[in-house]
């Protein structure tokens, strides 16, 4: 039995949540995945997984073994990267993650231009509206919006985004323009879930912060759906400035209560502390940081 391969299969099963999902990820027959996990359990003389028809759960011994296996695999991968010369030449796979809309509009163009300049690097760009663990997902760099909580990561700020409350001119003509946050209590609101740092209905007055929410008329699960609903005149939304930059610039949406907006949120590229830093990571940071800063500065000018 190849124990290293069995560890990798076990981690895939745990990360994907089921044997069938792991088989699809590994592009291996389900019977092969199941057999490798069973062989590993037989070799160790313990039960690692509790299997059900849909999901698998780790036993206590399984949790300890998976944690140790993850450390071992990361050490082996690090040794392979060093042996492959990632610390001498910018090469290898670079894994970057970002929120979906920001990644599509701002990070992807920068990343494609970077790839054109770095033929020895391949890029895996994961766009997802949740904050992932760099270690768990084996990600090299993440773009984060909001104040950072993980002090173990190194952060380089590339700009800020503002929380924006807005509505369509047709809605405002029908319902009136709110002049104070308290006026929103008489308005229809569109709420959504799906973004890791969804802006709250929070405002500033002098040195105090307070919250007033409109009546929830519609709830959706994506930012795009909320914006389309606001454009159709169904109510007021709160989003981040980059998400409605085009709509604000064209006048299809109108910003509201800007004088009461909370402080902008930082936008940062974060990565794990390492010495030395792999050249593929350093090369991407050197390329992306000045370009994203210029892009964010231009965006801020167009949305204020």
UniProtKB/TrEMBL annotation:
GO terms for molecular function: DNA-binding transcription factor activity; sequence-specific DNA binding. Pfam families: HTH_1 (PF00126), LysR_substrate (PF03466). InterPro entries: LysR-type_TF_proteobact-type, LysR_HTH_N, LysR_subst-bd, WH-like_DNA-bd_sf, WH_DNA-bd_sf. Belongs to the LysR transcriptional regulatory family. One of its GO terms (biological process) is DNA-templated transcription. It comes from Teichococcus wenyumeiae. Transmembrane segments: none annotated. PROSITE patterns: HTH_LYSR. Keywords: DNA-binding, Transcription, Transcription regulation. It comes from the Bacteria. This is LysR family transcriptional regulator. Residues 1-59 form the HTH lysR-type domain.
């Amino acid at each position: 039995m190849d124990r290293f391969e069995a560890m990798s299969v076990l981690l895939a099963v745990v990360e994907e949540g089921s044997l069938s999902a792991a088989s699809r990820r590994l592009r291996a027959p389900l019977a092969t995945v199941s057999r490798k996990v069973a062989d590993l359990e037989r070799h160790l003389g313990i039960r690692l997984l509790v299997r059900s028809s849909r999901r698998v759960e780790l036993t206590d011994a399984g949790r300890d073994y998976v944690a140790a296996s993850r450390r071992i695999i990361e050490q082996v991968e690090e040794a392979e990267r060093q042996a492959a010369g990632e610390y001498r030449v910018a090469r290898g796979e670079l894994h970057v993650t970002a929120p979906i809309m920001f990644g599509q509009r701002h990070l992807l163009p920068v990343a494609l231009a970077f790839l054109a300049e770095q033929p020895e690097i391949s890029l895996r760009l994961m766009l997802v509206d949740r904050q992932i663990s760099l270690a768990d997902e084996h990600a090299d760099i993440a773009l984060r919006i909001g104040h950072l909580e993980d002090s173990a990561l190194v952060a380089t700020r590339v700009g800020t985004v503002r929380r924006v409350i807005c509505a369509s001119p047709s809605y405002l003509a029908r319902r009136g323009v709110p002049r104070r946050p308290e006026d929103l209590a008489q308005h229809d609101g569109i709420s959504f879930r799906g973004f890791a740092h969804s802006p709250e209905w929070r405002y500033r007055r002098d040195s105090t912060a307070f919250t007033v929410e409109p009546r929830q008329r519609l709830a959706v699960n994506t930012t795009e759906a909320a914006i389309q609903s606001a454009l159709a005149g169904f109510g007021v939304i709160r989003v981040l400035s980059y998400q409605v930059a085009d709509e604000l610039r064209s006048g299809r949406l109108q910003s509201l209560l800007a004088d009461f907006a909370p402080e902008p949120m930082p936008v940062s590229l974060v990565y794990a502390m390492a010495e030395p830093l792999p050249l593929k990571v350093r090369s991407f940071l050197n390329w992306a940081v000045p370009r994203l800063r210029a892009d964010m500065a231009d965006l801020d000018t167009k949305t204020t």
